[in-house]
From TrEMBL:
Name of protein: 4-deoxy-L-threo-5-hexosulose-uronate ketol-isomerase
Native species: Alistipes hominis
Chain's role: Catalyzes the isomerization of 5-dehydro-4-deoxy-D-glucuronate to 3-deoxy-D-glycero-2,5-hexodiulosonate.
Keywords, in A-Z order: Isomerase, Metal-binding, Zinc
Similarity comment: Belongs to the KduI family.
Single annotated GO MF: 4-deoxy-L-threo-5-hexosulose-uronate ketol-isomerase activity
CDD domains for this protein: cupin_KduI_C, cupin_KduI_N
Length: 278
């Protein structure tokens, strides 16, 4: 297991970051390594972003030092979405099978969590978000058929997309974690327009289903002080509460959004007109 810590930045400080500093503070370049767990512990709402890739052996999610806990889920809840081959997650005595684009919520509670791939030649890729939890809620597998689905945008505006709200309060109870998946249709490349912020929640984006020769340009920063970060498939980016989170790519793609904070109201956001962005 490998982990790193990321610290919070004041928006006035972030205005002066050059490309290297922006990438160092907010971009998570490598999430998946064979037979390894890679985690980033962020000071923004103490969200953990990670990737788990079991190939030749099971991988156990053990607590990292910043948690100061006997188990990873001792005071945390966990959201998992499989973006690879078929795999299983064993949480205590319960085992959950996850196919491509299926999600799993694990509530807090002391138990061992182990990840396996069904086929080493097509390993599972478990993308995870974890946030502090004040109580236990039941574990639950969530598929796209369980999700709250919203169709938004249009091909004419290059942003026809399907938003699958997987781990949200309309589907199951959580303490603060929310996760979902937005799929852009062929010919569409823009997400999250009009841009917005939500001061009571931070967010992380994970991009996938992007060809190897394509790239996505993620936009962040305050609406009047925007910055950009070029990203590739299977990379993630941390978005502070004061920042917009939007992107445009050279090909259509899918991304997973995860949020943590004091509010579970998906619609709580302050939008900014495209023509007002700077």
């Amino acid at each position: 297991m490998q982990y790193e810590e990321r610290y919070a930045a004041h928006p006035d400080d972030a205005k002066g970051y050059d490309t290297d500093r922006l990438r160092r503070e907010f971009l998570i370049e490598k999430l998946f390594e064979p037979d390894d767990i890679r985690l980033v512990y962020s000071a923004y709402d103490r969200l953990i972003v990670g990737g788990i890739m079991p190939v030749g052996r099971p991988l156990e999610l053990t607590p990292i030092d910043p948690l100061k806990a006997p188990f990873f889920l001792h005071r945390r809840e966990l959201g998992i979405i499989n973006v690879g081959g078929k795999g299983t997650v064993q949480a205590g005595d319960n085992t959950f099978e996850l196919n491509y684009k299926e999600a799993l919520y694990l509530g807090s509670g002391d138990r061992t969590v182990t990840f396996r791939s069904a086929d080493a030649s097509a390993p599972a890729l478990f993308y995870i978000n974890s946030a502090p939890a004040h109580r236990n809620y039941p574990d639950r597998k969530v598929t796209k058929s369980d999700a709250v689905v919203a169709k938004m945008g249009s091909l004419e505006d290059s942003n026809a997309r399907t938003i699958n709200k997987l781990i949200v309060k309309q589907v199951l109870p959580t303490c603060q974690l929310q996760m979902g998946m937005t799929e852009l249709e062929p010919g569409s490349v823009w997400n999250t327009m009009p841009a917005h912020t939500h001061n009571r929640r931070m967010e992380a984006y994970f991009y996938f289903e992007l060809p190897a020769d394509a790239a996505v340009c993620h936009f962040m920063g305050q609406p009047q002080q925007t910055r950009h970060i070029w990203m590739r498939k299977h990379q993630a980016v941390i978005s502070p509460a004061w920042s917009i989170h939007s992107a445009c790519a050279t090909h259509n793609y899918t991304f997973i959004w995860g949020m943590a904070g004091e509010n579970l109201d998906y619609g709580d956001m302050d939008t900014c007109a495209v023509t007002d962005l700077k």
